[in-house]
Recover the amino acids of this structure.
């Protein structure tokens, strides 16, 4: 009975402390806890334009993971804990996002980001590594692998942006109608719409985290709008990719895993088959009942795909 009362007192103290803690601090505590569970540590490194923040943890061959548009390095945390036992996982905030430098006068299209990513890799001593990316990060990762094949052990594309010949997804249909793309978030309501749009079965995210993420997205809206235009080159609702994956990856000769959720509303799943037919050493894994962010929606299952792929 005394033990039960003691636990109850601790819970009550925790509730009081929770209510007294500012939302920003609760957000930081939650993020820090997930990073610790996954064995990741926050680090920084400098390139010419400024400082890049990144998460790193684990041991083995390096695995460099690139987040998507409007996201950040913490998109990989839930999956990373399933990979750090075999890989040295490195997840940077790409320039323009997260805690990395943000300069409105820079160009953030893929060729420029590839140059910055190479500078980052050199700054932390990476020479040979696996590289993967989701959405915009996949678009960058694919182009990086083509530009620097001597550095790349394998390529992992998770619902990548940049497949020019793919059918319109729901979001690209919006663009053709010159509507706001769902990934471009300007307030809390739009952030909630994004969560419903990006996930098929949204994972649990505490309300305080959602509010803080929405607030950060709102603050980033002006720069994100600029970056979205630089990457998509929208003209009258038409997208014009600078270096589309279905052009640059033709006959790419490194092992390539293509992961895609069959319920992706942001980017059409047909892109998986298109890329799979272009890359000789590719393996395509279409995940059933999965949205745009498989590494968050099903972290263990998604990590297992890469582990099995790398052993093949």
């Amino acid at each position: 009975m005394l033990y039960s009362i003691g636990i109850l007192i601790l819970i009550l103290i925790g509730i009081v402390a929770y209510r007294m803690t500012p939302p920003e601090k609760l957000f930081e505590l939650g993020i820090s806890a997930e990073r610790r569970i996954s064995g990741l540590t926050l680090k920084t490194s400098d390139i010419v334009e400024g400082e890049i923040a990144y998460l790193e943890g684990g041991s083995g061959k390096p695995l460099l993971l690139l987040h998507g548009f409007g996201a950040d390095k913490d998109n990989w945390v839930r999956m990373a804990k399933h990979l750090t036992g075999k890989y040295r996982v490195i997840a940077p905030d790409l320039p323009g996002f997260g805690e990395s430098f943000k300069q409105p006068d820079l160009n953030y299209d893929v060729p420029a980001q590839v140059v910055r990513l190479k500078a980052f890799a050199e700054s932390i001593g990476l020479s040979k590594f696996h590289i993967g990316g989701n959405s915009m990060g996949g678009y960058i990762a694919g182009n990086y692998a083509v530009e620097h094949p001597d550095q790349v052990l394998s390529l992992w594309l998770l619902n990548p942006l940049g497949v020019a010949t793919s059918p319109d997804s729901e979001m690209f249909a919006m663009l053709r109608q010159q509507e706001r793309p769902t990934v471009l978030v300007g307030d809390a309501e739009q952030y909630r719409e994004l969560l419903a749009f990006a996930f098929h079965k949204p994972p649990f995210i505490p309300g305080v985290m959602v509010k803080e993420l929405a607030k950060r997205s709102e603050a980033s809206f002006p720069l994100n709008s600029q970056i979205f235009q630089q990457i998509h080159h929208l003209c009258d609702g038409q997208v014009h990719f600078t270096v589309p994956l279905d052009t640059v990856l033709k006959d790419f000769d490194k092992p390539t895993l293509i992961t895609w959720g069959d319920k992706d509303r942001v980017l059409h799943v047909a892109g998986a088959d298109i890329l799979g037919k272009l890359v000789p050493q590719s393996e395509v894994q279409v995940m059933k009942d999965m949205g745009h962010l498989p590494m968050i929606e099903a972290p263990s299952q998604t990590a297992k795909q890469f582990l099995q792929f790398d052993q093949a």
The mean pLDDT is 92. The chain has twelve helices and eight strands. The longest strand covers residues 50-57.
